[in-house]
Automatic annotation (TrEMBL):
This is Lipoprotein. It comes from the Bacteria. Residues 27-48 are annotated as: Disordered. Keywords: Signal. Residues 1-25 form the signal peptide.
């Protein structure tokens, strides 16, 4: 686990309960294609976030502070991302569920994911092999729902469970399912909810 204090910008409002409740992409768009020519021509919004614990921390810290819409859009998994992370049957089911429940509409204005005084980012990364084994470290740092879908995860990737908290607090905003796959970050929050879809 790494703890990375971050200075959030003053005046940020709103508590975001979960990305799954608040975000999405333009309805009817193809997740394998850029949303517009302008989007494809713009700089890569993920360029500042390498495939490391610090990259994961900085990415979520930035989203917690700003709700950056371009970065949010870039986190939308492609078909290839679902296929790389999940076993085939679950991959198809997960893509249908996420597209319907989460990525069906994109917010039109940025909305921070955390309160202004939640300035500490705590990161736990786990290999999918360890999640499948449901190790002690995974049990301590990941939601119990992962135990329900652990056998659908393919080996060889790292998933992150992240909290954004007030310094000294244990409770705060929880984000899980951030994964670096196919050369970029993608977000698969609360994947066990796919089982209910």
């Amino acid at each position: 686990m790494s703890r990375v204090p971050r200075s959030m910008r003053a005046g940020l409002g709103g508590l975001v309960l979960a990305l799954a409740l608040a975000v999405g992409a333009c309805g009817g768009s193809d997740p394998d294609q850029p949303s517009s020519p302008a989007a494809s021509a713009s700089a890569d919004p993920q360029a500042a976030y390498p495939a490391t614990d610090l990259g994961a921390s900085d990415l979520i810290g930035h989203m917690a502070a700003t709700g950056d819409l371009a970065l949010l859009q870039s986190l939308r998994p492609t078909t290839a991302d679902y296929q790389a992370l999940f076993e085939p049957d679950f991959a198809e089911r997960a893509q249908r569920a996420y597209e319907k429940q989460m990525w069906s509409s994109m917010p039109t204005t940025p909305k921070p994911w955390a309160d202004p005084d939640q300035t500490e980012v705590r990161v736990w990364g786990a290999k999918t092999e360890d999640i499948r084994k449901w190790t002690t470290a995974v049990r301590q740092n990941f939601p119990g729902g992962y135990n329900k879908i652990k056998h659908y995860l393919k080996p060889g990737l790292t998933m992150y469970s992240i909290k954004v908290v007030r310094p000294g607090d244990d409770l705060g905003m929880a984000f899980n399912g951030l994964t670096h796959v196919n050369g970029h970050w993608a977000y698969f929050p609360k994947p066990w909810r796919v089982l209910d879809s």
